[in-house]
Every structure is written in C-alpha cells, then in structure tokens.
Amino acid sequence: MPKTAVVTDSSACLPPELADRLGIAVVPITIHLPDGDLADGMPEAPSAVYSALRAGAAAKSSAPTPAEYLAAVEDRGADGVLIVTPATEFTGMSRSAAVAAKVAGRRVAVLDSRTAAAAQGLVVLSAAQAAAEGAGFDEVLRVGESAVRRAELVAALDGLDHITRSGRVPPMALGLARRLGVRPVFRFSGGQAVRVGVPRSEEASFRRIRAEWAGRGGPGAERTAVFHAAASGRGERLAAVLETDAVRMEFGPSMGIHTGPGLVGVAWLRAG
User: Fold this and answer.
1) pLDDT tens by residue, 147-195
2) What is the C-alpha to C-alpha distance for residues 270 and 19, in angstroms, rounded to an integer?
C-alpha cells in the first residue's frame, strides 16, 4: 500500500483498470431514476440513464456524502490521503470531502481540481502515479496542485435539448438552434465554463476543438484523454482529427444527465 492514497468521485471518468492499477478509490455518485437508484460506474448505468432521458423521464443525481468520503479514506489504510474533487463552482463535493477530512483518523487534504470530468481524472492520475512511485504526502499534493494549474478541457455537445431543462434557453432560440444543427463547444478551465463556438456540424465542432487544443498546449501535453458520452464512434473520429493515441475515457452518466449522450471532447495537462 502506498504511503499516500488518492480518492476521487465517479465523475472523473477514470477507466476502472487504470483506477485499480494505481489504487485510486472512486466514490460513486448516485443516480436517481423512476425505476430506482443506480451507482455511477455500474455497467448498466449509461443505458438506463440515456433510455430514461430519451423517454422524457426524470433523472437526477446526488453527490457522495461526507460519510461515503470518510469510508473511502479509512478503507485506504495509507498514512495520508488526497481527495480530488470537481470545481466548487460545479458541485458541493469539495465541502463534503472537507467534512470527512476533519474527522478522519489520518492526514487528509482536499484538492479542488478547478475543473471536472476527464480533466479532473488527469489530475487524479498524476497524483496517483506519484503516490504509486512512493512519493510522500507533501509531494503527492504538490504534483496534484501542479496538475490543477495545467488542466484544460474542451468539449462539444450534441445539440441543446438536454441543457434546455434549465429553462435558460428561450423556445424561439432553441427552435432555431435545432434547425441549424448547433453543437456548442465549451472550454472548462480554472473553475469556469466558457462557450468558445457554436459550430453547425460535427466536422466544424471538431475543428473548433482542435483549434482550442492546439492553441493551449495540447500537442505537447503531459497527459491527454479523449472522452465521450455513449458515443465511442465520435470519440474515435475526434482522436483521429487530433492525431492522438491518448487514453479514452467514458463520460459518466451522472454528468450525462445534464448533457445528454453524444458529448465528445479532449482533456489535457499542459506541459509543466
């Protein structure tokens, strides 16, 4: 067991084999569907969530509780534990993790990744790799903090249908966007989500993603991941456009509730 362990949540999009190999504890987000609750990460979760969304059924999620974070910390058996969470602007997970850290019987730090999804996953992988190589608590935390400062993510939605549930898109604008086939492209960095384009085709959205990736250190990145939400074919096409053999990650259905299937993007850590 490494001297320092790393804990995160299922929104980090980590492939199970990578998490297992590096000893990362992944606390699942709970998904609430009309037919019952599922843990994010269960094999049947993606099909259940997207089937419910297509049927117009209610789908919600709830973040891990302090007790669930605490259980993951105590289960590690390491001298120290680093908990990596999504940006506080997106969720209250860091607050729940902080509560667990206060009552844990060992040294625990909570690191806000200032991002989400696959970019958060890359921060986790950097810290966990250092821990697996025998780094002490302070060094693992330093590696994680460095990764946070360099994390980038750009993604394209497959339309606007699912984000309109917030009520922030006027019906007239929604109708126009549907007719035009708009695929909004967003960049996530520093705790902020910024729209960087509204391409009208898959090809155009990929060009926009590539431009952001190329202009912000993607080609020389320390780590890269191409991710998708139930759209592996689109993920492979994006990887071909980027000319990268980066690790592939599945966008968790607990987040897919808000974006719908079809989302695709790339996350990377700029070279330090």
Assistant:
1) 999 999 999 988 555 554 544 334 433 344 444 456 889 898 888 888 8
2) 22
**Closest by Cα among 156, 111, 114 to 130:** 111
- 32-47 pLDDT tens trace: 999 999 999 899 999 9
Which amino acid is residue 103, in one-letter code?
A: V
Listed residue (8, 115, 101) closest to 63, CA to CA: 8
Residue/partner pairs of 133-141 with CB below 8 Å, 24 or more apart: 134/2, 134/3, 135/3, 135/4, 136/3, 136/4, 136/80, 137/3, 137/4, 137/79, 137/80, 137/82, 137/107, 137/109, 140/4, 140/6, 140/80, 140/82, 141/82, 141/109, 141/111
- How buried is 79 (Cβ within 10 angstroms: 0-12 exposed, 13-18 middle, 19+ buried)? middle
CA distances from 113 to 7, 164, 170 (A): 12, 27, 32
Distance CA 96, CA 149 (A): 23
Residue by residue, DSSP assigns 35-60 as: TEEEETT-TTHHHHHHHHHHTT---E
- Check: CB of residue 40 under 8 Å from CB of residue 257: no
Q: Name which of 255, 263, 249, 232 is nearest 155 in CA terms.
A: 263
Q: Are 127 and 23 in contact (CB under 8 A)?
A: no
